[in-house]
């Protein structure tokens, strides 16, 4: 796990308990900035822990580099989705009224976000670029904006179809 954390430029978290690793990731992806940011960070943290078993990651003390990247992908995906949920709650975007359509939209957005995060990490690794805090925030912000745009289009399509 130490090597994976160093590859993500999070070497200071190496050797720490898994809870501290997740809290470090939370600070890295969703820095402090208010109660909404803290809530988003916490939600992403909880969702990531729940997703780990589904991703086949059960030995948290012996994470490989690829597993650490998966954990990071899950966390960033969950953080972006939580931000989008906040936007929905603030009525910035509208979801379809049909629960099946909402589930379909959520699945499509999750797939888009997860692939975009994985692609960003793969490009950074291929370029041998360190994942600095600013770079991570930039790609997370960019993916969020793209997902927000997709969500707005889907919402507008629903309103027009009604």
Tell me the helix content: over 70%
- The number of domains is 1
Q: Tell me the major beta sheet.
A: none
Number of helices: 6
Sheet-strand content, in percent, reads under 5%
How many beta strands in the DSSP annotation? 0
> What is the CA-based Rg, rounded?
16 Å
User: What would you call the structural class?
Assistant: mainly alpha
Q: Roughly how many Å apart are the termini?
A: 51 Å
Query: Which stretches are poorly predicted, pLDDT < 50 over at least 5 residues?
Result: none
Element-by-element helix/strand order? HHHHHH
Q: If you average the pLDDT, what whole number results?
A: 78
Shape: elongated
Q: Briefly, what is this?
A:
By secondary structure, the chain is mainly alpha-helical. The chain has helices at residues 2-7, 18-29, 35-54, 65-89, 99-126, 133-161. It has one domain (2-161).
How would you explain this protein's 3D organization?
The model has no long low-confidence stretch (mean pLDDT 78). This protein starts with a helix and ends with a helix. By secondary structure, the chain is mostly helical. The chain has one domain (2-161). The protein has helices spanning 2-7, 18-29, 35-54, 65-89, 99-126, 133-161. Helices cover 74% and strands 0% of the residues. It is built from 6 helices and no strands.
């Amino acid at each position: 796990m130490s090597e994976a954390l160093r590859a993500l430029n999070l070497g200071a978290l190496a050797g720490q308990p898994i809870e501290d690793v997740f809290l470090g990731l939370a600070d890295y992806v969703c820095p402090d900035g208010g109660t909404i940011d803290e809530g988003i960070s916490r939600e992403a943290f909880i969702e990531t822990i729940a997703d780990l078993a589904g991703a086949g990651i059960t030995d948290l003390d012996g994470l490989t580099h690829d597993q650490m990247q998966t954990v990071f992908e899950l966390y960033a995906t969950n953080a972006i989705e939580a931000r989008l949920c906040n936007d929905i709650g603030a009525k910035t975007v509208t979801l379809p009224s049909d629960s099946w359509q909402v589930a379909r939209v959520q699945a499509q957005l999750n797939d888009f976000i997860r692939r975009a995060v994985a692609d960003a990490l793969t490009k950074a690794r291929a370029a041998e670029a360190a994942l600095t805090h600013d770079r991570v925030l930039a790609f997370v912000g960019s993916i969020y904006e793209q997902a927000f745009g997709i969500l707005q289009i889907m919402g507008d399509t629903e309103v027009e179809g009604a």
